[in-house]
Amino acid sequence: LVNGRDRSPGGATAPARRFGTRTRRSAGRTQSTLMLSPFIIVYSVFVIGPIILSIALSFARWDGTSNPSFVGLDNYREMLASRGFVRSFGNLLSYVALTVPVGIAVALGLALLVNRFLGRAANFFRSVLFFPFIVPFFLTAAVWRWMFTARFGLVDRLLGSVGFDTEGWLRTPWLMIPALVIVDTWHSAGFNMVLILAGLKSIPADLIESARVDGARTIDEIRYVILPALFPVLFIVVVNGLISALQVFELPWLLTQSSVTGTSGGPGQRLLFPVMEMTSRGLGALDFGEASVIAVVLLALTGVLTTAMFVARRRFGITT
Amino acid sequence: MTRSRRRASRRLLQTNRAAAAARWLVMGIAAAMAVFPVVWIINAVFQPAGAAVALRPKWIPTSWDAGVSNISAVLDDPGFVRAFANSMIYATIQTFGTLLLASMAGYEFAHGRSRDRQALFAVCLIGLMVPVAVTLLPTQRLVSNLGWLNSIQGIVVPLIASSFALFVLTENMRAVPRELIDAAHVDGAGHFRTYWRIALPLTRNGLLAVGILIFVAAWGNYIWPLVVATRPDRYPVSVAVARYYSAQSHTTINEVMAASLVSVVPVVIVYIALQRHIVDSVARVGIKG
């Protein structure tokens, strides 16, 4: 379609005129190339290049400096059976199973609540609740680590008064993932709330009005009118949540004070996640081949999720 | 009849009032939790030594002088000041670099010769789903082989081809009327000049929104500078503050908190000044993107 429109003016004009504008056209072409190429070059070298390198290196043995040697599927065989791989993906699974539903429930609740406010109050709460999203991870982790400290930390002080004493959440293996989920929810609930709120605003007012005229209670209204209408937005929020959960590592890294080269993940390695395992395999053990296997698995999982999202988008009629 | 109706309406009013009160209460608690950590940092900085970690903590700041001396102790630490300056440099260059590259390419995809290249555009969006973390190791090797470790370009350049920025700015560029572009061309303006003088000013809302988000992310960036900047004089503020928190650090908790407070000031100022704008654009971009 666009092609057709594009061709017609040029094709209809006389050859003489085309000849006359040639210099300007080629100047335009040079400028066009000059404007597109900075992005394309940097993008190819630093985004596409590393992706291809990751895939290639997963079939090689490489210590980062000498010449890599091709080893076929060896890395996959060793890696998929290794303790670090199994543990990090096991942790990831329990983290995802907890953080996605909890995060979305909190965000949805906040959105429905903020939606009942009007004007200034609504804007104020929206801005305040979004605020945690812009607090840098290194601060978020630092403050929460302090809150989770045994006895002195605020969480233990509050829960200790009702008899729930711990050795500190980040030192108690079964509480470590819940602690991360709390921090993650604190960080991202406001962001998701803003998305859901935008979805709520796009529900036609007469739809809700007619439900009210029919005598629907608030619960029914939410269940039968709002949730179905919100489904596309909620789907996007869930898939976004899944994709970012796959890549989780800065918060657990900082919460457990892991180092680049040493072991990471805190006591019992309950907060060891795939990207952390990858980094310590690569920069710590200097085994870039095995580390790349993790990158490839993560790339594949993200690819599947993103494809699902695009397909779903098309079905829901959300066009970009 | 009238009396019973009046009673009914009064009851309705009361339940409505109760519901409204409950809403305000829950919302107030949620809002307090959202800002609590930062408020707590401020509280801890403006306390005499030891008060912040006491078993009976003080809930409001008690000592202005303690706060001033905690903050000036941090500002006297040359390592911290340099890290703060480094972060300013990194984040500023990264923000403007990203905006320049993405807006030029976005203009090309929206109005230039590349506007039919859907496949190329799709390839340029792959980065939306592949974060730096996943390809951290090969990128780090690449930077190392270029001899860019511990350099500004080593930290900034690998991050400035942002698919996110390209996506949003292309959308914005598409909204610029074609007639305006054509009119500029007819008036004899070249391709670059039309982009710079016509398209760019018209997309300033998008540029501002993307710029803020990139700046905030760049300011908080931790892992990438950690593996590229190995020399202490190249640390960004994120790495410097994380060092304050580490067990080997010899600073008091009040100074650690003061360092945290100073490090978050730029982000908080930007947010407070532009919060409506930021939240609105996230809502717009999030649903579409």
Plain-language structure description:
The complex is a heterodimer of chains A (320) and B (289). In chain A, 74% of the residues lie in helices and 1% in strands. Chain A is built from 14 helices and 2 strands. The two termini of chain A are 18 Å apart. Residues 1-22 of chain A have low confidence and may be disordered. The termini of chain B are far apart. In chain B, α3 packs antiparallel against α10, α7 (163-174) packs antiparallel against α10 (204-220) and α8 packs antiparallel against α9 (191-202). Chain B is flat and about 70 Å long. By secondary structure, chain B is mainly alpha-helical. The chains are: A mainly alpha (320), B mainly alpha (289). The interface between A and B is large, with 91 and 87 residues.
Summarize this structure briefly.
The complex is a heterodimer of chains A (320) and B (289). Chain A has 14 helices and 2 strands; from the N terminus they run H-H-H-E-E-H-H-H-H-H-H-H-H-H-H-H. With 320 residues, chain A is mainly α.
Keywords:
heterodimer; A: 320 residues; mainly alpha; two-stranded antiparallel ribbon; 2 strands; 1% strand; B: 289 residues; 13 helices
DSSP E strands of chain A, number = 2
Q: Helical segment tally of chain B?
A: 13
The chain pair with the largest interface is: A-B, 91 and 87 residues
Read across the widest sheet of chain A, the strand sequence of neighbours is 1-2
Stretches of chain B where pLDDT falls below 50 for ≥5 residues? none
Task: List the SSEs and their pairings.
The complex is a heterodimer of chains A (320) and B (289).
Chain A: H1 2-12, H2 15-20, H3 22-57, E1 60-61, E2 69-70, H4 74-81, H5 83-114, H6 119-130, H7 137-147, H8 154-160, H9 173-201, H10 205-213, H11 218-246, H12 250-255, H13 274-284, H14 288-316
Antiparallel strand pairs in A: 1-2
Helix pairs in contact in A: 3-14, 4-14, 5-9, 5-11, 6-9, 9-11, 11-14, 13-14
Chain B: H1 2-45, H2 64-75, H3 78-111, H4 118-124, H5 136-145, H6 152-156, H7 163-174, H8 178-186, H9 191-202, H10 204-220, H11 223-228, H12 237-245, H13 253-288
Helix pairs in contact in B: 1-13, 2-13, 3-7, 3-10, 3-12, 7-10, 8-9, 10-13, 12-13
